[in-house]
């Protein structure tokens, strides 16, 4: 008989309960139950019919993890460590938290612990700007990047020259990225020198390469939205927390 069991941590990730790293952490701490029994041994295996739950300590730990939205300027590296001068994460500080029309005193306080295990999710090239997500929550990364990415991303690309009539048709024919199959994407032309891309993946230099393929010179690339979460009026170089009523 075929053994259909898989590692508990992998199954927890498949179910969207947490990231693989979080699953291993919760298992070691004894915060995971399988069919009502605590399992605290890494490498334990479970079947597809077994019920997995996370103890309240784990749920509380997840609730305390933050997700941050940054309007990244051009020239900063979203994945560079803080010791680098061009690291975008260095913009995440108390004095750059966006208040909007609210009283700054009413905002959730920024704490140093919010930078612990805060990782970039869905990178932007250095020369691109716009919405950048940083999160301590592994579930957010699972939803936004990789083959299982669920959310549409919207980019506005401005080019140097007027766009020829046949460019949209040529772009729609591109289905491969090197040896890899591209996920379907949409492109429209909001103005004579702008293209709007709607896609569910964002590979390094992908948009600039697509434009070069159709002989367009890119002036700027700006990410406007991921899913329902957009830049709105978030100023360049400032950030805010993902709100309690916002979800990826």
Automatic annotation (TrEMBL):
PROSITE patterns, per the entry: S4
Residues in RNA-binding S4 domain copies: 6-63
Keywords (A to Z) from UniProt: Isomerase, RNA-binding
GO molecular function terms attached to this record: 23S rRNA pseudouridine(2604) synthase activity; RNA binding
Annotated EC: 5.4.99.21
Highest taxon in the source lineage: Bacteria
The keyword Isomerase appears for this protein: yes
Keyword Cytoplasm among record annotations: no
UniProt cross-references to CDD domains, sorted A to Z: S4
Name of protein: Dual-specificity RNA pseudouridine synthase RluF
Organism: Andreprevotia lacus DSM 23236
The reaction(s) this protein catalyses: uridine(35) in tRNA(Tyr) = pseudouridine(35) in tRNA(Tyr); uridine(2604) in 23S rRNA = pseudouridine(2604) in 23S rRNA
A Gene Ontology BP annotation from the UniProt entry: enzyme-directed rRNA pseudouridine synthesis
